[in-house]
Amino acid sequence: MSKTSNNKTTGHKKSHNTYSDTIIFDDNSLAAQLYGQNNLHLAIIESRLDVELATKGNKLLVEGRKANCKQAIMILRKLYVRGESGLSLAKADVDAAIRMETATKKDHKNDNNDTFIITRRKSLSPRTPMQETYMKALKSSELVFGIGPAGTGKTYLAVAMACAMLEAGQVQRIVLSRPAVEAGEKLGFLPGDLKEKVDPYLRPLYDALYDMMDPAMVEKLIEEQVIEIAPLAFMRGRTLSNSFVILDEAQNTTTMQMKMLLTRLGEESRMVITGDPSQIDLPRGMKSGLIDSLDILRGVDEIKQVRFREGDVIRHPLVAKIVRAYNKQDGTSDE
Fold first, then answer.
1. If we measure between CA atoms, which residue out of 314, 309, 276 comes closest to residue 96?
2. Which of 74, 103, 162, 313 has its CA 20 to 30 A from that of 134?
3. How far is it, in rounded angstroms, from Cα 52 to Cα 103?
4. pTM above 0.85?
5. Distance CA 198, CA 139 (A)
6. Cα dihedral 231/236/238/239 (nearest 10)
7. Which residue in 187, 190, 175, 147 sits closest to 297, CA to CA?
């Protein structure tokens, strides 16, 4: 646990309005992880929140404007609790905690177990407020649309939830699919049989699975058809019951393909549709089934539509700037 000393206003630093507070951490080794190598994590918090942090063993002095100090203390406490729970305390986790705490969201609440996704290999918590909304939708809704730019975690989190529900016995199998529309390439010219042609195209789904489960277990479950990874065309004529179904790159479905998949949903199943409407690879003039379905199903209360924005990108910071630049060029906004 961490403790905070009595708050006070001091005059020995920046100005007479400088606020300071001291946090005392019970576990020295955990405090060291929180600080980061060469206090890197503290430096990130200092830079992003415009505060000064000074350490003395398990004591941490926080100085700066009062509002900024309060945010910094909240972030540090949450990160410390995260460490106590056995979760990671890496640079990405610090960035995520800052993003979550500083986001303007009226109904934002402290992280809790309701927003964790836990598999045998990994425990995930939201890194943006929109990820928190998405993770709650994945847990509560039978059909969820995750829409937005690359790098927001929409597919990765869906695969994580599918693995968690499979391990918990809430579903009996996982079905992962993508439409076989190539981004400027032709599968027919690739060597090998159909599986060898489509496997590289489905590789991002395999990669997410390997993060959540032991690779040998993934291969065993694929062999036993507990996990199925296949092009969208393979879904026709089937009823997908007791399954967690994920359609990735859904912007490249036709309207008929999307209707076909949505009507495959069977008893005791979940379905997640992910896609980025700004990256449609369909022939010119052909309407995207994703865009069509979002309009048609907008009024269905049981279906959740979660829309990520460029500010939700959690890959390299440059990715968010790239997305913003392309949006500006295309005349789209992030409102």
1. 314
2. 74
3. 21
4. no
5. 30
6. 90
7. 147
